[in-house]
Amino acid sequence: MSQRTYRAAIVGTGGIAGAHAKAVQASGGRVELVAVADVDTGRAAEFAAKFGGPNTYASAEELLREERLDFVHLCTPPQLHAPLALACLEAGVTALVEKPPTLSLAEFDTLIEAERRTGSHVATVLQHRFGAGAVRLRRLTEAGALGRPLLATCLTQWYRDEAYYAVPWRGTWESEGGGPTMGHGIHQFDLLLSVLGPWREVTAVAARQYHAVDTEDVSMALVTFESGAVATVVNSVVSPRQTSELRFDYERATVEVEHLYGYTDDDWTVTPAPGQEDVKSLWAADPGSGSSGHGGWLKAVVEALDAGQAPPVTVTDTRRTMDFIAALYASAFTGERVRAGQITADSPFARRMDGTGAPWRKK
Asked: Is the same domain home to 283 and 159?
């Protein structure tokens, strides 16, 4: 039985778009890149030539009007994600949106409403969920094979220099929606949430430690989960020794991964608790070679569409992560603990992630 080939386009041909195009090339013919769009038509032409010569357009609107598509990869600056995703949904095309999917919780809720109304889908590109190690850890956690999750740490400690922030759309609430909490650490703590399940409460701080930007460059949070597990989350772009780390302490073992911008199975380690050595055999009995790159994520998207399902990461999953981000900022800027679901539509932190305003702006 032959498998369907999906017709895809990429909107925005900057840095991350290359990872999407390479994932399409590695799809084994399941996805065909048929078009790209960019306001910089010269860059679009160069990108098209590099990745197979698809048609090029100067706008997403023109692309959606002229092409027959199954899905569109949105790789533009964050402030364009919501309007472009809405345009895709209205055109009956699935939107695959880079992180952060929107600038605010309210914007994300407009995508949820549009998905329900149009019957098309929107999915967020949170590819770290799909590496073999993460898939295995979720499976063992859900089966109870590691015992109860007790404690976790989640660190995204990266470094960004002044040249990074010289790009006009970086470092502002209006264009990025936030600092490393929105644009950098989201991969790590989204994976944390996918493993530990519903979060219950967050207490946080956020600070502008070094960079002369509007957004924070550091945030930290203490999180409790419905399961009873507790976690710390750190997001930074001021850390010269860069690392991305997740550690999960269960009753029967500690499971860890350390990498920078993407992991393989070799980056995971398992340390059994005394008398629980069989945990290592449980981990080894489920081998996998998949990395946390865009290829594994795109494979999961295609498999979901094959089955007539919403592609991952679905709006339900992503909203939990966006609610966590809004709650983290609300806690940091009000000094209060914030519960899951507490940021309702009338909250200033639903409309903007800085809500009532970052304290350094008031100064």
From this structure: yes
Q: Are residues 84 and 162 in the same domain?
A: no
CA distance 153 to 192: 9
Q: How far is CA 114 from CA 71, 149, 220, 341, in A?
A: 16, 36, 33, 21
Block residue for tokens 């850890």: 137
Non-local (6+) Cβ contacts of 146 within 8 A are 140, 250, 251, 252, 253, 255, 279, 282
pLDDT tens for each residue of 11-34: 999 989 999 999 999 999 999 999
Token pair in block for residue 357? 């305003």
Pairing verdict, β 199-207 and 218-225: antiparallel
Those residues with Cβ within 8 angstroms of residue 275's Cβ, 6 or more apart along the chain or in another chain:
none
Q: Which two tokens stand for residue 338?
A: 């914030």
* Domain housing 110: 6-126+297-312
| Strand stretches in the chain, DSSP E | 6-11, 31-37, 55-57, 71-74, 94-97, 122-124, 149-159, 199-207, 218-225, 230-236, 238-250, 253-259, 268-272, 338-339
Tally of residues, the chain: 363
Burial 200-233 (b: 16+ CB within 10 A, else e): bbbbbebbbeebebbbbbbbbbebbbeeebbbeb
pTM of the model: 0.97
Q: Give the torsion through C-alpha atoms of 49, 51, 56, 60, to 10 deg.
A: -150
The token duo for 103 is 């600038």
Name the pairing type of β-strands 122-124 and 94-97. Answer: parallel
In a domain, 358, yes or no: no
pLDDT digits (tens, 9 = 90+) for 243-273: 999 999 999 999 999 999 999 999 999 999 9
